[in-house]
Design a protein that fits this description.
single chain; alpha+beta; six-stranded antiparallel beta sheet; six-stranded mixed beta sheet; 3 helices
Length: 252
């Protein structure tokens, strides 16, 4: 995935009202940029951070610019636009770059499913095997104090994420494949786990989901200012064990 037109850069002044950010451009002027990330954005949104934003030619948009990437004090690149996670995941799957999810005949997005009124991010279908329900989550939280590359999800309490886990467990129980795909969009993260210190209920439910047969995949694309490239998997650590890179194994 490439950014067209190329991203422009500036320094973050402030993020406010969840969806707005002010960016100081190199000429000293200030630009208000849309922020699609509704999370805490810990370590991604400190004033003075170097940021990059895209520009849309859609005349109906109130704010034509979108915050895409931030650079951490250690030089790591972080894609903060959570909408990109689904786009990148779809492109990678269609290109066969995520091997555990390759080979399906059809791929659909935002399909209604489940008993809680959800929409699955990606539905993989094939006449020769069970359907595969893929929920995509963007990971940008790095524990900078530990300095060991540990990333976490979520970065804030998520009732929506808990609902998605319940829906995935229900799909698995109905005979389908159910996959939680973490798209790790922080170049400094080398492994990840559930953020039990932020949302202990989600962490417990995730352990239950793994026990019920929901598969966990953590894929880290290479983040560049120009776009994203295929890279590879990183391991996911649970309380009881480590799920290897790219593993399809569940604890069922």
């Amino acid at each position: 995935m490439k950014f067209h037109p190329p991203l422009q850069s500036g320094l973050l002044l402030q993020r406010y009202k969840r969806f707005l950010t002010d960016v100081q451009l190199d000429d000293g002027s200030t630009l208000t940029v849309h922020c699609a990330n509704t999370g805490a954005m810990t370590g991604c949104a400190d004033p003075g951070t170097r940021v990059w934003y895209s520009t849309s030619d859609n005349p109906k948009r109130k704010l034509p610019h979108s915050w895409e990437i931030a650079q951490s004090p250690r030089g790591h690149l972080i894609c903060v636009n959570t909408a990109r996670a689904n786009q990148i995941a779809r492109e990678l799957i269609e290109a066969g770059a995520i091997a555990p999810l390759a080979g399906y005949a059809r791929l659909r997005s935002e399909v209604k499913y489940g008993e809680e009124g959800s929409r699955i991010d990606l539905l993989l279908e094939d006449d020769q095997r069970p359907s595969c329900y893929v929920e995509v989550k963007s990971v940008t939280l790095l524990d900078a104090e530990r300095d060991d590359g540990m990333g976490y999800f979520p970065d804030a309490v998520t009732t929506r994420g808990a609902k998605h886990l319940r829906e995935l467990m229900a799909m698995k129980a109905a005979g389908h494949r159910a996959v939680l795909l973490f798209m790790v969009l922080h170049s400094g993260i080398t492994k990840m786990c559930a953020a039990s210190h932020i949302d202990p209920q989600y962490s417990l439910l995730l352990e239950q989901a793994i026990g019920a047969g929901v598969e966990i995949l953590c894929y880290q694309p290479h983040v560049e200012i120009t776009g994203f490239k295929p890279q590879g998997f990183i391991p996911f650590e649970t309380v009881s064990r480590i799920i290897p890179k790219g593993s399809e194994i569940s604890t069922e």
